[in-house]
Amino acid sequence: MNWRHANGSPMPDLGVVILAGGEGKRIGGLKPDRIFRGQRLIDIAIDKARLWSPIVLISVRTVGQVRTAAGEQLLDRQDIEGPLGGLIAALERAQALCLSHVVALPCDMPLVPADMAERLFDTSRREARAAVAGSGGRLHPVCAVWPVACLADILEYASAGRRSLAGALEACQAVEVWWTGSEGDPFENINTLSDLRRLSE
To answer: Residues 37-67: pLDDT tens digits?
Structure first.
């Protein structure tokens, strides 16, 4: 699914940020390079992001953390730990690019639904607030669409020393979008080698 105007030209108001700045200690490091069904996790995420937008940002904590020539690698805000630092850096970059929304996609969820960005983006625009994915009775704060207009609220939230993406979603009064089905949870993430083996089957 490519975002396009009715005249067929690319619609430049949605960008994607792939969250890849974690250390991946539980999997032995270098999580983006781990192989899932014949592909690196980072390459799976990039391929999916390109279906959603021509503007792909890759959030990293350190230079060279991810080995790829695709997308634009973007350093997390160094004063803000965790994925919130990556999200804020992406929203700041999106603001500079005159984008209206950013969809966050973690590099360790290779099975996220192909319609994730479309459903979250449509809901976010309709409700004029952030939209977060949910499945299996729980929300997935790393899978959300954030209006760039939320940046001021998120910065205020972070200035109080808070670092939770879930808390940032609450600060932005995010709406929940739920996925249901009987064929497993497409939002399962890979934290350990055991997770990698199990989901690869």
So the answer is: 999 999 999 999 999 999 999 999 888 888 8
Q: Residue 16 has which token pair? A: 């994607």
Neighbours of 160 (CB within 10 A): 9
3 in a domain, yes or no?
no
Q: How many angstroms separate the first and last alpha carbons of the chain?
A: 27
Q: Which domain holds residue 165?
A: 14-200
pLDDT in tens, 98-111: 999 999 999 999 99
Q: What is the dihedral of CA 182, 20, 14, 94, to 10 degrees?
A: 150
Q: Does residue 127 belong to any structural domain of this protein?
A: yes
For the chain, the C-alpha Rg in angstroms (whole number) is 16
The number of folded domains in the chain is 1
How far apart are the C-alpha atoms of 159 and 122, rounded to whole Å?
30
Q: CATH no. for residue 107? A: 3.90.550.10
Nearest to 60 by CA among 48, 51, 70, 50: 70
3-state secondary structure of 70: coil
Considering the domain boundaries, does residue 117 fall inside one?
yes
What's the whole-model pTM score?
0.91
**Within a domain: residue 98?**
yes
